[in-house]
Write a structure and sequence with these properties.
This protein folds into two domains: about 5-25 and about 110-240, HAD superfamily/HAD-like (Rossmann fold, 3-Layer(aba) Sandwich); about 25-110, Putative phosphatase, domain 2 (DNA polymerase, domain 1, Orthogonal Bundle), CATH 1.10.150. The chain has eleven helices and six strands. The protein has helices at about 5-10, 25-40, 45-55, 60-65, 75-85, 95-105, 115-125, 135-145, 165-175, 190-200, 235-240; strands at about 15, 130-135, 155, 185-190, 205, 230.
């Protein structure tokens, strides 16, 4: 028997997805890229710590843009700025500019969580599915091509020159898709992202990703009654939406 949806969920026509951490495993993927490069160069390092350090610069870098201290810079550009700061500590200061560019594009090559493809294909049967990521358009399209992510549309904060959680990103995505905010549901593993989407009028689906930071203790996995849906993964999300 199909799950009966609430009246609010019956109005949802599109799902927009956070990508880093929600759809793809950034930490595992960047760690693997580091290990591969380290093997080629004969460098031994804590590559999980390298991934964590790179990601740790993500929010501060976006805040520089939001505050106006830095002109609009896409995520590829911000990732490269962060990379320059952490190369020495990992023994990678000898990399050429071309090698740095290749390493920076590791964020284009992130692998999806095991349930992601199957879950997205199920959700796509009823809903328009699109990214709504701070990642730039070229990054998201390259990732989708490589990982065969079945998006109907690739939307990025780059299109609005506003990084999430600025409301312009959520409202801009709904407008570009041709829907009212309440007809769009944000799907994310990050509660701050969801609360910002709700403040802009979107619906919210929380998906647990306990291993995003390598240790479930580091994640807030508690379901929240204020979210429209709480799910273990994309398969569970599909089931809770009656698919």
């Amino acid at each position: 028997m199909a799950k009966r949806l609430t009246p609010a969920l019956q109005q949802v026509k599109a799902l927009t997805f956070d990508v880093f951490g929600t759809v793809v495993d950034w930490r595992g993927s960047i760690s693997r890229e580091g290990r591969k490069l380290g093997k080629e160069l004969g460098i031994r390092a804590d590559w999980a710590a390298f991934a964590d350090a790179w990601r740790a610069g993500y929010q501060p870098a976006m805040q520089e843009v939001r505050s106006g201290r830095l002109a609009w810079t896409n995520i590829d550009g911000l990732h490269r700025r962060i990379l320059e700061r952490i190369l020495d500590a990992s023994g990678l200061d000898m990399l050429s500019e071309a090698e740095k560019d290749q390493l920076n594009r590791a964020w284009h090559r992130l692998a999806p969580w095991p349930d992601a493809l199957r879950g997205l294909k199920r959700l796509k049967k009823r809903y328009l599915i699109a990214t709504l990521s701070n990642g730039n358009v070229s990054l998201l399209t390259n990732m989708a091509k490589r990982a065969r992510l079945p998006w109907d549309c690739v939307l990025s904060a780059e299109l609005f020159h506003h990084y999430k959680p600025d409301p312009e990103a959520y409202l801009g995505a709904a407008a570009m898709l041709g829907f009212e905010p309440h007809e769009v549901m944000m799907v994310a593993a990050h509660k701050g992202d969801l609360r910002a989407a709700q403040a802009a009028g979107l619906r919210a689906a929380f998906v647990q990703r306990p291993l995003e930071f390598g240790d479930p203790v580091k994640k807030d996995l508690k379901p929240e009654k204020d979210f429209d849906v709480n799910a273990r993964d994309f398969i569970d999300l599909a089931a809770k939406l009656g698919l």
